[in-house]
Amino acid sequence: MTDMPPKLAEIVEEFASAPREVVLEMMLEFSDAVPPLPAELAGHVGMEQVPECQTAFFLKAVVQPDDTVVTFFDCPPEAPTTRAFAGILAEGLAGATGAEILAVPDDLYARMGLAQAISPLRVRGGTAILARLKRQITEQLS
Q: Residues in domain Fe-S metabolism associated (predicted)?
């Protein structure tokens, strides 16, 4: 899976090869891994809401001068599946460049095998998160 950052490719492979009954446990681990927002983003100032998600989900991507991207995500703990998407992206995209993130396939969650473990509505929300992240990066790079 050379079309995505190495950390993300590793996560995708772990999910794709995991037995279905383990996938939800793996997602819960990622939902606990979402870093807290820095103080300057408190109240979601400057963050974009993702209305396709069933729960309130906010994100922000910042392209640094060295072209790496810093991502920020916020979602309530009561929404572990949606938080898991944030945790997967936060860990998998850490240190990635804008170009690397833009190259992440739009069917990321299908490649992970999540369509068999969670509802299509949740997969659509996760896909929207990735799309909005890419759009923010594209806007900053142009």
A: 13-136
